[in-house]
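Structural prep section.
Before we set up the soaks we want a predicted structure of the protein with magnesium ion in place, mainly to decide which crystallisation condition to try first. Input record follows.
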Amino acid sequence: MGPPGVGKGTQATILKSHLKVPHLSTGEILRKEIALNSDIGKVSKEYIDNGLFVPDNILIEIIENYLKSSVCQDGYILDGYPRNVQQVKDLHLLLSRLNQSIDVAISLTAEKKELIKRLIKRSKDSGRSDDAIEIISKRQDVYWKHIEIISKRQDVYWNQTAPIIKYYRENKILKEVNGLGTIEDITKRIIKVIK
Ligand code: AP5
Ligand code: MG
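Run finished without errors. Recording the tokens verbatim:
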């Protein structure tokens, strides 16, 4: 867990080879659906492009399909799910039904200024519609619209996702990890808390 740009995807990609489990990024899954122009993709695009969350019922359906699949039976890393109170409840019910449980919830932290800086930097080559701002000099209106969406995603995180961290803290499975520093140092910190 952690705000946009904190390094969830970067770290999960490294950890999946270390832990030998699949990495499920709901953002990546939704972007693939958009690229395929599927029904889920068509609905999701509108929300993602505006920095808003895609409806919970779509997410739980995606997660259920993954968690039931054979590749997930020895564990998995969830990146970007759950992200609000309803999703915590949905996941909780699903896990009890599947007789699975979460071992650890990792909350990566960093200050907003650094996050915005990383997302602006990434926007130059990510191809992601929710942080693309490559046309800076030509279209100031487009530039500000994208800055607004990068910023909006941060606000949505603080309003909807940050409050669910306490649920995992109360369940004593929360580990907070400083997301500032080199990518390698952060990986070492995460591996240490997992151990
Ligand atoms: P999602 O794809 O999850 O995006 P996000 O939360 O906005 O987070 P990012 O992927 O932008 O950041 P990250 O933390 O993964 O950082 P990264 O490793 O890339 O979700 C996108 C959208 O999909 C949502 O807005 C929503 O619409 C929808 N969605 C997804 N899940 C949903 C759900 N559960 N419910 C409803 N809707 C959902 O790193 C960022 C950049 O920083 C990279 O360029 C990286 O190279 C760089 N970087 C990483 N670590 C470091 C470091 N230590 N130092 C310097 N740079 C670094
Ligand atoms: Mg990501």
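Observations: The CA atoms of residues 95 and 101 lie 6 Å apart.
Flagged for discussion at group meeting.
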